[in-house]
């Protein structure tokens, strides 16, 4: 099958915000304890952070990490995680039916983030708590000194404020599973008042208001309409979440799910524009897609803990999806969608980073290892920063019962101004046919292929593990440029990343 693509220098989508490639660490399962933090591990540093995990996080070049939740934040007291470690309380975490030792709190996480060379994106608790807690936390984190909370931070060993820019006003407040769930109107008012208080402290912070937890919520998309009606002029982003599953084991459908993501983004982008017009506002609100991933492999094994059958265990294995090759293709298509919609999606967080639905896994007292999905995330994060190109794509498509004309070729292109390169991220969704891609480079002088990485040729259910990582990129060898046209053959069901100069 043939596919023709045109990239024109003058046809661009937007400058990509590097934070599109962020991630997420929640106090959930083994994300923190025996994930990023394991005192006593052979690679642990003086603070107990696993150096092997830090190395993998740095390899991914993660620009921002959301913390501390997730559902966890909606019943979290951030003050439990400050002060001498031996005096910190153990609390029952109602979101995941576990016990939280609070051995890692804001100081430790901030130190870890600095070591990981990433920025923090913090969430405040608008479930069991509210405005007062939010303003105290913000003052603790961002005020230089001379006030109760900032002096307490200094007393606890951190002289300088951390200056965190990006703040989430709660988490998934539309969800019945959320501690302190609210109606859109209740949440809209609370978020507005909290934003007002937080902005009174610092008008330059960026605020993220909760949108829908999934487009399947019965309140979607009225939720966004109502919440933005209350908060439009006070916030910078509306957050969206979406997880992808393949319980039906239908590859065609699974690979087409990113089409639903496109519709989701398009719909909320329209709601944003509607409210902007209604308010006669000059400012723009963007999307923070701060939770996304494939999540379904671990659903059955998690049930006993989530149903309380194990009591209140501390840091049990939860949401430990072991990703396969099919997930590489889906994650590739999701990242391509974000690049193509980087005009409205400015922040993205792969949920999550370590052990919990994560590209990085650890064995307690053992090695850290890369899941299959590590690689499409790695390539987008490293080579997807710059200006997104508005590609014209001509290829056959297929039908599913939820999306029409799903293109066999999924592709995104980025001009990486920092080094003058061009990156193309390609997925062949066809299960049996190769795609002969001809990509016309209009107005570009790029004439050679500098990097060509292929992930393909595996059974769809092939996984990696702590002992071996068989699913990994190989070098492609058939991409060539002649007369401004890049030609490449994409094997059936394959992921490809090609860099040009
Ligand atoms: O990322 C796992 C969970 O998914 C988060 O805690 C929650 O926000 C979402 O439902």
TrEMBL record:
Keyword Lipid metabolism applies: no
Enzyme class: hydrolase
EC id: 3.2.1.55
Designated name of the protein: non-reducing end alpha-L-arabinofuranosidase
Keywords, in A-Z order: Carbohydrate metabolism, Glycosidase, Hydrolase
SMART domains named among the record's database cross-references: Alpha-L-AF_C
GO molecular function: alpha-L-arabinofuranosidase activity
Gene Ontology biological process: L-arabinose metabolic process; polysaccharide catabolic process
Subunit structure of this chain's protein: Homohexamer; trimer of dimers.
Pfam families membership: Alpha-L-AF_C, ASD1_dom
Family: Belongs to the glycosyl hydrolase 51 family.
Catalytic activity entry: Hydrolysis of terminal non-reducing alpha-L-arabinofuranoside residues in alpha-L-arabinosides
Classification via PANTHER family: ALPHA-L-ARABINOFURANOSIDASE C, ALPHA-L-ARABINOFURANOSIDASE C-RELATED
Biological source species: Cohaesibacter marisflavi
Occurrences of domain Alpha-L-arabinofuranosidase C-terminal (ranges): 290-494
């Amino acid at each position: 099958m043939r596919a023709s693509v045109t990239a024109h220098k003058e046809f661009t989508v937007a400058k990509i915000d590097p934070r599109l490639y962020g991630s997420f660490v929640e106090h959930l399962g083994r994300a923190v304890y025996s994930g990023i933090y394991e005192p006593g591990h052979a690679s642990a540093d003086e603070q107990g952070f696993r150096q092997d995990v830090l190395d993998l996080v740095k390899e991914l070049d993660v620009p921002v990490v959301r913390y501390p939740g997730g559902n966890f934040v909606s019943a979290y007291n951030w003050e439990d995680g400050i002060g001498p470690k031996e005096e910190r309380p153990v609390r029952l975490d109602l979101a995941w039916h576990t016990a939280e030792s609070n051995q890692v709190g804001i100081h430790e996480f901030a130190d870890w983030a600095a070591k990981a060379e990433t920025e923090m994106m913090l969430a405040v608790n608008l479930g069991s708590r509210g405005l007062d807690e939010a303003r105290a936390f913000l003052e603790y984190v961002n005020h230089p000194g001379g006030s109760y909370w900032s002096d307490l931070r200094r007393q606890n060993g951190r002289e300088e404020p951390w200056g965190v820019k990006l703040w989430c006003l709660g988490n998934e407040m539309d969800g019945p599973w959320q501690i302190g769930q609210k109606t859109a109107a209740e949440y809209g008012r609370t978020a507005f008042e909290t934003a007002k208080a937080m902005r009174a402290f610092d008008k330059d912070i960026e605020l993220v208001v909760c949108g829908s937890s999934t487009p399947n919520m019965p309140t979607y998309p009225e939720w966004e309409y109502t919440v933005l009606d209350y908060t439009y002029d006070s916030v910078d982003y509306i957050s969206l979440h979406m997880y992808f599953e393949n319980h039906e084991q239908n590859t065609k459908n699974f690979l087409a799910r990113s089409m639903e993501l496109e519709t989701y983004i398009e719909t909320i982008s329209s709601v944003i524009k509607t409210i902007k017009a209604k308010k006669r506002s000059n400012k723009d609100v963007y999307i923070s897609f701060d939770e996304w991933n494939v999540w379904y492999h671990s659903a059955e094994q998690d049930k006993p803990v989530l149903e309380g059958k194990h009591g209140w265990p501390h840091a049990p294995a939860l949401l430990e999806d072991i990703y396969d090759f099919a997930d590489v293709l889906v994650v590739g298509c999701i990242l391509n969608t974000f690049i193509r919609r980087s005009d409205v999606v400015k922040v993205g967080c792969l949920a999550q980073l370590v052990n919990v639905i994560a590209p990085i896994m650890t064995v307690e007292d053992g090695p850290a290892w890369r899941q299959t999905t590590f690689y499409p995330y790695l390539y987008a994060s490293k080579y997807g920063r710059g200006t997104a190109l508005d590609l014209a794509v001509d290829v056959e498509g297929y039908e599913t019962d939820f999306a029409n004309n799903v293109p066999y070729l999924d592709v995104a292109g980025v001009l990486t101004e920092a080094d003058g390169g061009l990156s193309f991220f390609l997925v062949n969704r066809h299960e049996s046919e190769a795609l002969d891609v001809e990509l016309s480079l209009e107005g570009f002088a790029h004439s050679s292929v500098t990097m060509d990485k292929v992930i393909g040729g595996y059974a769809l259910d092939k996984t990696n593990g702590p002992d071996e990582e068989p699913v990994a990129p190989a070098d492609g060898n058939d991409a060539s440029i002649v007369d401004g046209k890049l030609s490449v053959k994409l094997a059936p069901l394959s992921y490809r990343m090609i860099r040009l100069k």
